[in-house]
Design a protein that fits this description.
Layout: E1 15-16, E2 24-25, E3 28-34, E4 40-45, E5 50-51, E6 54-57, E7 61-68, E8 70-74, E9 80-82, E10 87-90, E11 96-100, E12 106-112, E13 119-122, H1 128-132
Antiparallel strand pairs: 1-3, 2-5, 3-4, 4-12, 6-13, 7-10, 7-12, 8-9, 8-11
Length: 134
């Protein structure tokens, strides 16, 4: 997918997400919005891009969907289709993934919920077989 066909939402595309590319299948971009007190970023995914399964220990995460179509799935639960205006409140310790639909770019604001001793644990990729079923 050409970058001109990617809708990053109102905050813009940002920079290639090179620091976390090992945890994504496909290309993504990251634009940090705040880094003090409440870490907040605009994350943009090309069509078909998704992140690995991961867990936010202690703090959790909130996603605010701003553009495109995507998916969220908590481990052991059915996938949830996402569109602009959707909010996903991910409690701490929930294994999950999120990313773009096969045929649409996707952008969300990711808010790291602060907590003492919080950390993120990156796990295995979402299998191509499971993703193809969406």
């Amino acid at each position: 997918m050409n970058e001109q066909n990617i809708n990053p939402g109102i905050f813009g595309l940002g920079n290639p997400n090179n620091a976390y590319s090992q945890y994504f299948s496909g290309r993504s971009w990251l634009k940090m919005l705040t880094v003090e007190r409440l870490v907040t970023a605009n994350v943009t995914f090309e069509a078909g891009c998704r992140n690995n399964w991961h867990v936010h220990h202690k703090g959790g995460q909130i996603l605010l969907v701003t553009a495109g179509r995507g998916w969220y799935q908590a481990y052991g639960e059915p996938p949830r289709s996402l569109k602009p205006g959707d909010v996903v409140n991910i409690p701490p310790e929930v294994k999950h993934w999120h990313g773009a639909a096969k045929d649409s770019s996707f952008a969300h604001i990711a808010i790291e919920v602060p907590a003492e001793g919080s950390s993120n644990e990156w796990l295995e990729p979402v299998s191509d077989e499971d993703y193809a079923k969406l």
